[in-house]
Amino acid sequence: MTELTKGAQLIPNGMLDDNYPRNMWWCAAHVDEVTDRPMARWLLEKPVVMYRKKDGTPVALDNRCPHRWAPLSEGRVIDDQLVCPYHGMQFGADGVCTRVPTQSTIPPSAKVQSYPLRQAGRFLWIWMGDPDKIDHAPVDMGYQVNPDWSVVTAYMEVDANWVLIRENVLDLTHIAFLHAKTFKQGDWENPASVSMEGESIVYRQDFEPSPLSPLFCAGFGFPDGKVVKREQEGRMPSLAVSFSDWNVHDIAAAPGERIDYLVRGAHIVTPGKRGETHYFFAAAFDVPDVSDEVLDQTKTNILDAFNEDKDLLQKIQRLVSEDPRGLDFPEINLGADGAGVRVRQILKRKLDAERSA
Ligand code: FES
Ligand SMILES: [Fe+2]
């Protein structure tokens, strides 16, 4: 591991380097991605293969056979064992080799690393650090599997360091500017107030009545342009996860009709290869049984907006990577960077702790 690059950033974000803690839960996949067929994904700069056993238990192993290094994900799952595609060595869910087709003795070192996986909400979470240091569960996302909510999930690969996405989703003042044509939520003119609640970064901001972003009107059953009052509240309980709550109040609700609504975004990032990030997203309306058609359209609209972020963040990453000045360039903080600065403080603290251990 390298030190976070020192430069003109007051608190370096390490965007060109290995800048992710290991001893925490990162998202490995949407639950539906992992089946009885092996699936490959780079996580924390390591090749990982995932599959499910017959009883549904998800398994994650190093995706590199210790014999001649074939990607195990090209093999097959037989009786809960992963069979290498090259010479047929077989590995159990714990990574230990159970069979070598051409000999009866199994070399004692014939095993691959296995990683703990757990489910939370609609996602699987992997611990790639020291398993003896697992001291907490993945962030609770029970609402995502609660039938009182209607949920869309999406995934995109972003060629930018994960911390750029993390900072992006915690400073929503960019919505009025970068997403002027998609979110159309132009009233984001002031920074949110930011505080720490325990280990979580929290931001809050109230808005006077204004038309709600068309991205979310249909999910609530509102016509486009519906004027609502909003309280925006965000929370980052882990570097891997932040939530953005749009608390919406129907100020024209007839007596006895519903007034309060919520759409909660979950922004989940996982480092992949160096400079690449898996970005998992869930938008959840606290409204049951929203139609598939509305959810599909909502997903399309959200992806249109998030592709604006992706495009710009990738350009930032490329610019900083290719510019010989790298991070040695002035970087100023604005009032709206309160949450982003705290991300860097938390990141630095975690990395310092892991690297000095
Ligand atoms: S490379 Fe896997 S069995 Fe030979
Ligand atoms: Fe954005």
TrEMBL record:
- Broadest EC class assigned to this enzyme: oxidoreductase
EC number of the protein: 1.14.14.-
Quote one Gene Ontology molecular function term: metal ion binding
* Segments forming domain Rieske: 25-126
Q: Which InterPro entries match?
A: Cholesterol_7-desaturase, Rieske_2Fe-2S, Rieske_2Fe-2S_sf, VanA_C_cat
What positions belong to coiled-coil segments?
none
What keywords were assigned to this record? 2Fe-2S, Iron, Iron-sulfur, Metal-binding, Monooxygenase, Oxidoreductase
Source taxon at top rank: Bacteria
Q: Which PROSITE patterns match?
A: RIESKE
* PANTHER family assigned to the protein according to its UniProt record, in alphabetical order: 3-KETOSTEROID-9-ALPHA-MONOOXYGENASE, OXYGENASE COMPONENT, IRON-SULFUR DOMAIN CONTAINING PROTEIN
Specify the protein name. Answer: Toluene-4-sulfonate monooxygenase system iron-sulfur subunit TsaM1
Q: Which organism is it from?
A: Pelagimonas varians
Originating gene: tsaM1_4
